[in-house]
Design goal:
The chain has about 400 residues and is α/β, with parallel strands linked by helices. Among the domains are: about 110 residues, Globin-like (Orthogonal Bundle), CATH 1.10.490; about 130 residues, Nucleotide-binding domain of ferredoxin-NADP reductase (FNR) module (Rossmann fold). The strands form two sheets. Strands 4-3-6-1-2-5 form a six-stranded antiparallel beta sheet. Strands 9-8-7-10-11 form a five-stranded parallel beta sheet, with helices on both faces.
Amino acid sequence: MKWRLSTDDRTRKCGPIEVSTIAFADHERAAAYFWSFMVDRSVRFLPERLAPVFFSTLVELIAHGADPAAYRAGLVVLGRLYRRFGLHSYHGTVIAAAVVDTVRRFAGDSWGPESAGVWEQGCFRVLRLAEQCAEMLGDGSQVMFGVVESVVSASGCVAVVTVRPVRRLHYVPGDAVPVCSPRLPGRWRWLSPANAPRPDGTVEFHVSVVPGGVVSPVLVRQVVAGELLWLGPPCEVGLSLTAVGGADLLLVAGGTGLAPLRALVEQVAASPGGRRVTLVVGVRRLGGLYDAAALDGLQREHGEWLTVVVVLSGDGSADPVARGSLLGSVLHHYEAGQAVLVCGPPEFVREARTWLPIGGIEPDDLHVAVTFQRGFDVDAWASRQRHTDTAVVETSEGSGADGVSGVAS
């Protein structure tokens, strides 16, 4: 395995600027070496089976940080492991030594005279952030493994990935889960379950190939049934029904942002309580409506309180009633007092946050999914987690159940 660092210039060669994509077998060897280094020094907090998760996540966070959503997903995973195994600041010395020694061993010619110091300082920085994240998250669902039961192509660039966690994944509809494939170890992405908790514990994720993305093409086109995925702790990302009380719902989905909103519809279906729900789904063309069968089924079964509206923004041949702007359709269907929940690609969420209040939706009625692209998003997300984490466990156990847009980049 080669940890190839950027060689754009001599001054950057020693820094962890770019980690190459690693074959799983090589990564396993590196993680085993990392784990053995610590065990040889009588540091045994980390079970061997979780060494690849801990090591790859730590190294990825040291080496990358350009994508704030992916970075936050990795920190959530590392923070939960940090708390689970009772780590303290003084553990950082041996962990940093193990990282430096492992990367040096596998870096080959990429290792320069200043590399050790850069990696060591990067490790300390990430561990400090993980410690803060551990405190924020509190206790709750642990990092676990899941077996892929099926990968079904839903359209040209969207796949429905069904996973069976080895232990029940405690979440509530609207949550997002850090997900990682060992094919790209350490590269975590947020995915939202598209179903309310099921008796069999399976979780359905909707993944769309993002142009230029690294993780999404692997999940859609390479991962197959029988493989393992790594699953981080579910987090509340602004789409929980807890915050909206008993208000009627106007759910607004762009792309695979439909996933968590469909889960919310299933949650309401379990105990409707007189609540009315309008689900507005935006796609460019009818062929892009990848979950049409499920939506048809929900509409047929719950038509007395559920209305599904499909908006086609780029199909000139479609029925004029279905054509138009997604946000314009939202304003058309909005009624005062409704709670408006929005999920989709980050750019769509930004537009909704800006234009829907201008169009007349009360700011207190608008709930948009966290994208982690703004400091305010991160602060608001952080303030929710500890309270929500406890609520997730209580709700899930009480019911006997499991690009935050649903898109992995």
